[in-house]
Amino acid sequence: MPDSDLTKQEDLFTNTTCPYCGVGCGVLAQMNEYGVVTVKGDTEHPANQGRLCSKGTALGETVYLDERLLYPEILGEQVSWEQALATVAGHFEKIIETHGPDAVAFYVSGQLLTEDYYVANKLMKGFIGSGNIDTNSRLCMSSVVAGYKRAFGEDVVPGCYEDLDRAKLIVLVGSNTAWCHPVLYQRIVKAKKINPDLMVVNIDPRKTQTSSVADLHLDIRPGTDSVLFNGLLVWLETADEHNAMFTGNFTSGIQAAMEAAKKSASSIEIVAAKCGLPINDVQEFYRLFARTERTVTVFSQGINQSSSGVDKINSIINCHLYTGRIGRPGMGPFSLTGQPNAMGGREAGGLANQLAAHMEIGNETHRHRVKRFWNAPVMAETEGYKAVNLFNAIAEGKIKAVWIIATNPVVSLPEADKVRSALEKCELVVVSDCVGETDTAKLAHIRLPATTWGERDGTVTNSERCISRQRPFLEPPGLAKPDWWIITEVARKMGFADAFPYTRPAEIFREHARLSGFENANERLFDISALSDITDRQYNALTPMQWPITRASPNGTARLFSEARFSTPDNKARFIAIEPRPPASACSANYPFVLNTGRVRDHWHTMTRTGMSPRLSAHTIESYVEIHPDDARLYAIRESELVEITSPLDKSIYVRARISDKQQQGSLFVPMHWNQQFSSQARVGSLIKAELDPVSGQPEFKHSVAKIRPWQANWYGFLISRHKPALKYAKYWARSRGKGFWRYEVAGHAIPQDWSEHAHTLLNHPGEKENWVEFYDKARSHYRAARIIKDRLDSCIFIYPGNILPPRDWLISLFQKDSITSEERANLLRGTPPADQEDYGKVICACFNVGEKTLLQAIQANDLKTVEAIGDTLQAGTNCGSCKPELAELLKLL
Ligand code: SF4
To answer: Which atom of ligand 1 lies nearest, measured to the CA of 19?
Structure first.
């Protein structure tokens, strides 16, 4: 067991940090002598004060070795680390020698720790001499980086989470906080309970679970946010809500910004018409904003993932500058980052247009400074390729070797099929990952096993600039190694041993801290130089702290700009003149729908971790599309049917229909998570055209176009198995994890001659005769079978001609038993649950496994009126609270 000062001896819990969203919750974790991992919220961590959401709570279910990559591999053959590292270094050197440094690239991840990021960036920019390192954070928050830089001269989040407690108005824009940053959402709900005067406005084309906390929901026309905020700027002038002292002394560019705003949004009527909103709602929002000094505007991917995301962000910041609402408690523009260490990556220079420590690649002084600090032989002179263009350059043969670290671009990038074919053609693809079988890792020539959460040691920075430690409490399995170690070893083999002497993360962190303060006479706010000389012991014991962390503020800084001194050359914040642009893709007769993508409550990114958790998988077992009831009627789509969604790229996916009036007419929503390891064809990234913000290079995931139609299969079914079948014979399949089993929803076109043979093949037991009980109702085309080994249910399969299949709960319960009775066998073959068997319905509360039907029955039977009353009766919602918005929705149904 790794030695850590922060392992509390009395209970052997280790303080670490959740590896999912940018809230950055503190976690206490422990593995007992039986190998069972227990996780709970860290009450002393300022980000969550003990709370965890459903994903954090289920972390213990995700640390096991299923599907882990355990050994280095070259072309699928296990090799030693020595051989793997020498091969990577040798190939990179050869390509650089022949084609120059820009012929190689790294594509890294917001999952990496800051120490990993630091060495990767140092190797590429200072020693290979290319800017070609970019990160998947490009996909979620690069527009914020650019927006903050334009306004403040530096990528700086002004406020902190405490501002949410102290605000009188919280404006949530493009942020399904309830599902994507659940602990912060709970914080807002709590703030509202303590302070009933706190108003919440939710601006989002969809009504999401977040809407349940909102006093006002503006279901804005997709892509018109800049018009709304330009209109607000104009309204603030009209309402005489101008903080002239602040703008006069501490800002520049107000006149041009106001003129531009008036061009696009001169009156409430024009704004309402352009944004598709009722005039009264716009007016109400503007009045609330105008009269509430303590306003926090929270924004997230709904704003960032746009071809005009940077402008949208500056249109929000303009309104805060105009009213001087920044740098004081309870106010300010506040971006929530998607990933656990997107911020750390920004600090270490993980984006292709940055250097390190908030210095710019385009700034000669910065380049020389970093070169001297690193004693680097070369220094990248120009920006590298940003994510989408990096893979385009691979496709064009300009980049011949790419090292992909802790990310899955074949799923997560737009035009994902193009990314796949680029990698198929690439001369050398190296993938470092903890999981062996991702859509991307399958294409690698060299696969390097990396450590993951629970094993990693380093730091991360959350959305409020708070640096926290991720600490190990598990030994790395197999030959898995930390990413910083792998990169360091490759750097050494490339001849840079002197500059990469690291033996532990504390050494890297100290260097990173020293660089942040190097020749930094208050020029850059990112300064953690007070930590430059911390000992290993102090590093191990480091408590969460918000940067800047300097000699003047050794305990960190909660809020910035309190003196209205910004990082621009004249120290003034900049208004930016915004001329709103429509989204890049417009609907047409052929593609009449706007396609929006995003997260679900209980999954994370490409599901490599959350897809392993039975509790998390139960909430959403397969991908889906949300569609408005009128659109569903028009296109003859029925609830829970399979549909085909096709985009102008001539790519299609197959997902389940969910009909909901929370979706705008003319819009579709599909989750981003599903990939080819979890569904036959549900990678929504393959549909999305790569339209980029011209400033940030962030793709427009929130607005592409598509068409939809029912997808009719000739047979439908499901199978539940203790093993993972290959399923190559089903046209549609989606798998999810249960406790001790895998569950598959399947459908197909071709009707087999012999169902029995087909079922055996689907379950990977072709030709097996013993162990099976089967029933085939030829008249109704119902086929049911079970594989039972020594009275223990091993697998079962149900095939029907239509989409209505028996409930699964009772079948799943049989997989929890060591043996099944003859009556249960008979029920299996009849396809009906025993009379006393309840159907719980879709899981709503993942912590206590409470289903929708159970909840509805209890609400009715006990006349429950509040979420708290549901909790008292069924426990639902009383642990992590992530399901509370859904419980509130159920109460409204009855
Ligand atoms: Fe993890 Fe949930 Fe906290 Fe995000 S809100 S850091 S996912 S526990």
So the answer is: 1
Cβ atoms < 10 Å from Cβ of 888 = 16
Nearest CA to ligand 1 atom 4: 21
Amino acid letter, residue 17: T
CA–CA gap between residue 483 and residue 361 (Å, rounded): 24
Q: How far apart are CA 141 and CA 134, in angstroms?
A: 13
Candidate from 2-16, 149-163, 744-758 with smallest mean pLDDT = 2-16
Residue among 17, 21, 59, 180 to mutate when testing ligand 1 (max atoms within 8 A of CB): 21
Q: Are 111 and 407 in contact (CB under 8 A)?
A: yes
Residue from 124, 19, 18 nearest 349 by CA: 124
* pLDDT for the residue numbered 728: 65
Measured in degrees and rounded to the nearest 5, phi and psi for residue 225 equal -60, -40
Residue that is written with structure tokens 């730091």 in the block:
459
Residues in the chain: 894
Burial 62-93 (b: 16+ CB within 10 A, else e): bbeeebbbebbbbeeeebebeebbebbbebbe
CA 76 to chain centre: 29
CA 866 to mean position of chain CA atoms: 31
Percent over 90 (pLDDT), the chain: 78
Q: Beta 732-738 vs 772-777: how paired, if at all? A: unpaired
Using an 8 Å Cβ cutoff, are 412 and 442 in contact?
no
Choice from 17, 20, 462, 466 to test ligand 1 binding pocket (greatest atom count within 8 A of CB): 20
- Which candidate, 68, 66, 123, places its Cα nearest to that of 500? 123
DSSP 188: H
User: Best of 54, 55, 605, 882 to mutate for ligand 1, by most ligand atoms within 8 A of CB?
Assistant: 55
**H runs (alpha helix) in 587-695:** 614-617, 629-634
pLDDT digits (tens, 9 = 90+) for 726-784: 776 688 999 999 989 999 999 998 888 888 888 888 787 777 778 888 888 888 888 99
- Give the distance (Å) from ligand 1 centre to CA of residue 235: 37
The pLDDT tens digits for 850-891 are 888 889 889 988 889 999 999 999 899 888 888 888 888 888
Spatial contact of 175 and 299, defined as CB atoms under 8 Å apart: yes
Cα–Cα–Cα angle for 608, 616, 480, rounded to 5 degrees:
30
Distance 179 CA to ligand 1 centre (A): 10
For ligand 1, what atom is nearest to the CA of residue 184? 5
Within 10 angstroms of residue 255's Cβ, the number of other Cβ atoms is 10
**How close are the terminal C-alpha atoms of the chain, in Å?**
52
Atom number in ligand 1 closest to CA 56: 8
Among the listed residues 338, 255, 252, the one whose alpha carbon sits nearest the alpha carbon of residue 303: 338
Residue whose Cα lies nearest atom 3 of ligand 1: it is 25
